[in-house]
UniProtKB/TrEMBL annotation, chains A, B:
SUPFAM superfamilies listed in its UniProt record: Winged helix' DNA-binding domain
Source superkingdom: Bacteria
HTH marR-type domain location: 32-162
Biased composition (Basic and acidic residues): 1-13
Localization terms from the record: Cytoplasm
Region (Disordered): 1-22
Alphabetically ordered keywords of this record: Cytoplasm, DNA-binding, Transcription, Transcription regulation
Protein name: MarR family transcriptional regulator
Cross-referenced InterPro entries: HTH_MarR-typ (IPR000835), MarR/SlyA-like (IPR039422), Transc_reg_Sar_Rot_HTH (IPR055166), WH-like_DNA-bd_sf (IPR036388), WH_DNA-bd_sf (IPR036390)
Pfam families: Staph_reg_Sar_Rot
One GO molecular-function entry: DNA binding
One GO term of the biological process aspect: response to stress
PROSITE patterns found in the cross-reference section: HTH_MARR_2
Organism of this sequence: Skermanella stibiiresistens SB22
Length: 171, 171
DNA sequence: AGATAATTTATTGCCTACGATTTGATTGTG
DNA sequence: CACAATCAAATCGTAGGCAATAAATTATCT
């Protein structure tokens, strides 16, 4: 690597710097101007930040989200997990089977309603809770933001999500 | 639908309402408290909002992002597209082949550097730009927010992404 | 009660996403 | 010139994600 300095930015920053508010700042079709892309790429960055931490736990990011719910309250149905995560059974069923294969959860029919499948943490699944406790702090640290700032941003993002979901329901 | 009223909330809102700032508001492992989940679910809601609009164009969401980049500047390499979208060739190659199969782009080796594959819009690919022009406005409308609010939120999210990416680079 | 309609649940098939490896082209060095 | 190192795409295996479909339960009607 002799002169890889001025070649090209490794990762185009998509900041609004440059151009001094020419036409570019107004063009709604510009990738950098779209909030959908901001969410899309921030989610990817977040997933990447979590990956090495989750590798230690031996689970993927969506699997971690399921475990978070079960640590809050055990013995939920597939349906209920799907409502909280906005995922349907087509996504959850294979995911839960993998968690079952790792010995972290058990899947069993609800005897009161044979249509439902109930998910319970195993002893190992419960034990993983302790190892996961530090993750949010690690991510907050990596973000370089205060917890208050992150909480504010989180609430704005959730509000946007709720508005979008509500608008979709009306359609 | 006789008495399906008080059964259960259709979509748990993950707002911070309830509990009146008991222990729950502080527990960093609570799903609702995690900004990663806010991003994750907002991205999904956004994708869902775009889907019917993109169905009219006949493309998926990531395909749309690629087209946005090409509409800004045509004839980019796979590598360059991947840098902007944080995607590698393993994702882009099949995606671009599908776009090629739909007659929206062409793929050809760069004659100056045969390692690179250049992606060019076809006539139809360029024509699609006009039909896509209205999409961002439709989404803004659905979000119920002002463009200024959305721009502010977008910049905060991009800042978070940049901080996370920078932190990852150091590791 | 028995038959049919409506709702809900879980499973299939296709696309996106990523890590790891492979192949071919280019650049750097002795 | 030859060799090694580097780089870009493509390929393969695994996993997440969603639309459409199939299976099962519940509700309704005669």
């Amino acid at each position: 690597m002799t002169e890889s300095r001025v070649t090209e930015p490794r990762h185009p920053e998509n900041t609004l710097a440059g151009t001094g508010a020419t036409e570019a700042g107004d063009n709604p079709l510009l990738l950098a101007n779209q909030i959908c892309f901001a969410l899309y790429s921030a989610t990817h960055a977040m997933t990447k930040a979590y990956r090495p931490l989750l590798d230690d736990l031996g689970v993927t990011y969506p699997q971690y989200l399921v475990l978070l719910l079960l640590w809050e309250r055990d013995g939920r149905s597939v349906k209920e997990l799907g409502e909280h995560l906005s995922l349907d059974s087509g996504t959850l069923t294979p995911l839960l089977k993998r968690l079952e294969g790792q010995g972290l959860v058990s899947r069993s029919r609800d005897r009161a309603d044979e249509r439902s499948v109930l998910i319970h943490l195993t002893v190992q699944g419960k034990a993983l809770h302790d190892k996961a406790e530090c993750l949010p702090a690690r991510i907050t640290e990596a973000s370089g933001c205060s917890t208050a700032d992150l909480a504010g941003l989180r609430d704005q993002i959730l509000r946007l999500r709720n508005d979008l979901t509500a608008a979709l329901r009306k359609t």
